[in-house]
Design brief:
By secondary structure, the protein is mainly alpha-helical. The protein contains 13 helices and three strands; from the N terminus they run ααααααααβααββααα. The chain has a three-stranded antiparallel sheet. Helix 1 runs antiparallel to helix 2 and helix 7 crosses helix 8.
Length: about 325
């Protein structure tokens, strides 16, 4: 009979898998066009790395992902994917390398740089690409008019560079500092600063000094942007949030494999992850996920961790608070 921890682990893994499927379907995979809103702008690089982390046990999802990449891989930013992978190691190195090598063989020669970044990494378990895999040709077209696909729409206009992320972030948040925008979009601060300067000269943003910092705000009054554009969109730091779920899954697996260990030993394993969990689930501001259990020990710490995981599940894997 499964324990509470094992049941919760299975629920988390299923929820994450469904979350990945929803996003790929919104991008046109699976032959199904979803009608409901996801609630945030899809981050395709974070989605790919998260799929390599949480979705490789679902052969159909892997096949749909590779088929989408074969058609639309040029819309992904390899530089941004590499930035995110370096920062979070969200994608298992072996799976990242195999996916990049497969894309290189499929004709996307520039993916060699991603494969080279994790060169020598060995995959674990079964191969990512099953023998005899064939790219599926009948996916749905990307619905660029959907808010969830807004970032890809901006890439169709501006190209695959930092501008789409910076503009999308500003449309969602309204204003911010260059370092903050760089951190949350996955681009270098110098690049973001340059783009904001160009946007300001073009009248898209305005700025004001705040000590040594400079706050940039979207200018909706000059007629360049539709006043309603982006009003219903939400930006999520999806790479960081997915990393939080990596810690959750690892914590649950450690608890499941240490059923005979003492309560104090089990709580120590969770306490080591608490700082990372607080960072990952508090990135949107004003949210206190996994806060309050720092001084607990023994079974109290274990119960606190399980309670917080259940609360995050109720919110949904992609939820966030602004």
């Amino acid at each position: 009979m499964k324990t509470e921890v094992e049941d919760l682990l299975a629920e988390v893994e299923e929820s994450l898998l469904n979350h990945l499927w929803q996003q790929w379907a919104m991008l046109g995979s699976g032959g199904v066009a979803l009608e409901e809103r996801i609630g945030f702008v899809i981050d395709p690089e974070a989605l790919l790395l998260a799929t390599l982390r949480f979705g490789t046990g679902d052969g159909r999802l892997v096949g749909e992902t590779l088929s989408w990449l074969a058609s639309h891989g040029g819309m992904l930013s390899l530089q941004r994917a590499k930035n995110l992978q370096r920062k979070t190691e969200l994608g298992p190195a072996g799976a990242v390398r195999e996916a990049a090598e497969w894309m290189e063989q499929a004709g996307f020669r520039n993916w060699k740089s991603l494969a080279g970044m994790v060169k020598g990494a060995e995959g674990k378990g079964q191969s990512l690409v099953s023998p005899g895999f064939q790219v599926r040709e009948h996916g749905q077209p990307i619905q660029f008019q959907r808010d969830e696909n807004f970032l890809l729409r901006m890439r169709m206009i501006f190209g695959v560079n930092a501008r789409p992320e910076v503009l999308t972030w500003l449309l969602c948040r309204g204003s911010g500092y260059p370092a903050q925008i760089a951190e949350e979009t996955g681009w270098l601060a110098k690049s973001v600063q340059t783009i904001l300067g160009e946007f300001e000269r073009g009248g898209i943003v305005s700025s004001r000094g705040e000590g040594r910092k400079r706050l940039f705000s979207l200018n909706r009054q000059n007629g360049f942007l539709d006043g309603k554009l982006g009003r219903k969109m939400n930006w999520r730091m999806q790479g960081t949030r997915y990393l939080g779920w990596v810690h959750v899954v690892d914590g649950l697996r450690e608890l499941a494999s240490s059923k005979q260990a003492s309560a104090e030993s089990r709580s120590i394993r969770i306490r080591r992850k608490m700082g990372a969990l607080q960072t990952a689930f508090g990135v949107e501001g004003g949210f206190t996920g996994f806060v309050g259990g720092e001084n607990l020990s023994g079974e109290e710490m274990v119960h606190f961790f399980l309670k917080e995981v259940k609360r995050q599940l109720r919110e949904g894997p992609g939820s966030g608070h602004r």
